[in-house]
TrEMBL record:
Annotated pathway: Metabolic intermediate biosynthesis; 5-phospho-alpha-D-ribose 1-diphosphate biosynthesis; 5-phospho-alpha-D-ribose 1-diphosphate from D-ribose 5-phosphate (route II): step 3/3
Gene3D superfamilies (UniProt xref): P-loop containing nucleotide triphosphate hydrolases (3.40.50.300)
EC code(s) of this entry: 2.7.4.23
Molecular-function GO terms, alphabetical: ATP binding; ribose 1,5-bisphosphate phosphokinase activity
Function: Catalyzes the phosphorylation of ribose 1,5-bisphosphate to 5-phospho-D-ribosyl alpha-1-diphosphate (PRPP).
Protein name: Ribose 1,5-bisphosphate phosphokinase PhnN
Binding-site list for ATP: G10, P11, S12, G13, S14, G15, K16, D17
Organism per entry: Pseudomonas nabeulensis
Length: 184
């Protein structure tokens, strides 16, 4: 039996990396692999434990077919290694930190994917983005506005195909909701 692609999406600052780190041991117990993304951000940058590559390296990897999924967002390129196809074929569930804007392409390639939308209260998200210190206040406000529009549209268009996880409260509660969604 083939495994299932679990596609985690949500705005930057919603806590995707924290959720994945907190859930990692329990996901491993279930045979679920968490994929390490390739990003054109330096490996020293604060954030997820991704493989940092230069834009030129990313372009070469993409041209060689190294990625099952790839996209551009916020001035960076992101890639999901092609290894996931072998893992899925072997029956492993595979959790990917994905992109909301790339959801349609992901569903086209992996129609049986489980989509999880991680949300967080806008005030909490604003504080997290400010504390991260990567963007100007104007950029943060634009990001918040874009997030509100995107989330409202996604939920309105696809209420039955997306599981919403609110990460405004304790992380342990979000981990439990994530694990519950995997049983659906």
């Amino acid at each position: 039996m083939a495994g299932r692609l679990i596609y985690l999406i949500g705005p930057s600052g919603s806590g995707k990396d924290s959720l994945l780190d907190a859930a990692r041991p329990r996901l491993a117990e279930r045979g679920c692999r968490i994929v390490r993304r390739v990003i054109t951000r330096s490996a020293e940058a604060v954030g997820e434990a991704a493989q940092g590559v230069s834009p030129a390296q990313f372009a070469v990897m993409e041209a060689q077919g190294a990625f099952a999924l790839s996209w551009q967002a916020n001035g960076l390129s992101y890639g999901i290694p092609k290894d996931i196809d072998a893992w899925l074929a072997a029956g492993d569930d595979v959790l990917v930190n994905g992109s909301r804007a790339h959801l349609a392409q992901t569903r086209e390639r992996y129609p049986a994917s489980l989509v999880l939308l991680l949300t967080v209260d806008q005030a909490v998200l604003r504080q997290r983005l400010i504390a991260r210190g990567r963007e100007s206040l104007a950029d943060i406000e634009e990001r918040l506005a874009r997030n509100a529009r995107f989330t409202a549209q996604l939920i309105a268009d696809d209420a039955t195909g997306v599981f919403v996880l609110d990460n405004s409260g304790p992380l342990e509660h979000t981990v439990e909701r994530l694990l519950h969604c995997l049983n659906v």
